[in-house]
Amino acid sequence: MKRSTPPDIELRPDEDIDPFMDGRLKLIQSKNGYRFSIDAVFLSEFVSIKPTDVVVDLGTGCGVIPLILLLTEPVYRVFALEIQEELAHQAARNAALNGYADKMEVILGDIKSLPISKACADVVICNPPYRKVKSGRINPNLRKAIARHELMASVDDILQATGHILKKKGRLAMIYPAERLVDILVRMRRFGLEPKRVQINYPDIRSNAKLALIEASLGGRPGLEILPPLFGQGDYAT
Questions:
Q1: What is the pLDDT along the chain (238 residues), one digit of tens a residue?
Q2: Which residue segments constitute the domains of the chain, with CATH numbers given?
Q3: How far is CA 189 from CA 47, 98, 156, in A?
């Protein structure tokens, strides 16, 4: 059955609308290009959100993380930064499609040349590219390649941008490969971000860790909370 689209929201031939969270969200995504993964869902459920928080999502893709937060948390406003024009356009249409255009502003821009004011956010969220440029095969689909490899921004670029955006004691939430956990924790401290909470994701009880969810505080005091492990796809296992 063909899904209906509001008449004022354009749907391109290579796109579809996918229902998510029991239909509470509808997301425009590319049929064959970049699509969000369970990582984005984990991150949106992990991050600490307080009432009236201003949130910045670095590399928002189709906007899935801000939209989940707006649906489930007391977020005041979200600024969603995306360097790829097609994905930024998807995110803006998804905000309108779900009725959040007044609370979610999509910004087309580069992390390395931020079009965002200094110390404006309580929370920064980032689901970054995991792989270094020279590690593994780079996907021929540019949108997928940018999402997976550090082609457009390195981890240091992301952490530097975070330090610019966050208010003092503001929070950064990231998801990263578990095998690179030490690297990201050390790098966070170099940029004045103190790791405060970590949760590890395992494919199953017999497998090595796959992903690490990390929350850090800008200028925070030392003290790390290790949360209970997260197995498989969490509540979204089929």
A1: 334 455 578 898 999 999 999 999 999 999 888 889 999 999 999 999 999 999 999 999 999 999 999 999 999 999 999 999 999 999 999 999 999 999 999 999 999 999 999 999 999 999 998 655 454 444 444 444 444 434 468 999 999 999 999 999 999 999 999 999 999 999 999 999 999 999 999 999 999 999 999 999 999 999 999 999 999 986 654 4
A2: 36-231 (3.40.50.150)
A3: 19, 37, 11
